[in-house]
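User: Can you predict the 3D structure for this chain?
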Amino acid sequence: MRFTWLFDKKKVHNKSKDAGIISRIEKRKNMGLFDFFKANDINKMVAEMDENTVLVDVREQNEYQAGHIPGAVNVPLSTIEKAALPWEKSASLYVYCLAGTRSKRAVRFLQSQGYTNVTNIGGISAWRGEVE
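Assistant: Here is the predicted structure, written as structure tokens:
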């Protein structure tokens, strides 16, 4: 049974936030039971991202300096609440950390601040590419 009545467009009040939610629901419509538990593949996500997507590393500065995915911007989770983030609320943000836990928290925070296109792509520990 699908609960599409919860997202009746007549009841949508915050269109930009609800559009992001509806978009994520649309992506998951055809998922199987076990697909729901799959984590995003950081390698695939980075390979498929476009030039407008911002890659955000939420590890601490010393971790970032020890090695990060080329092109990533460092915004440590410990400072994200106070950081002046330069992106539009609709910007496509791919967030990662070491294993995926901090990036999950960062995604939740960013969404609570109105960012509508934020994706947790997991942890750099699964990264098979080069690091800077």
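The two ends are 47 Å apart (CA to CA). The first strand starts at residue 54 and ends at 57.
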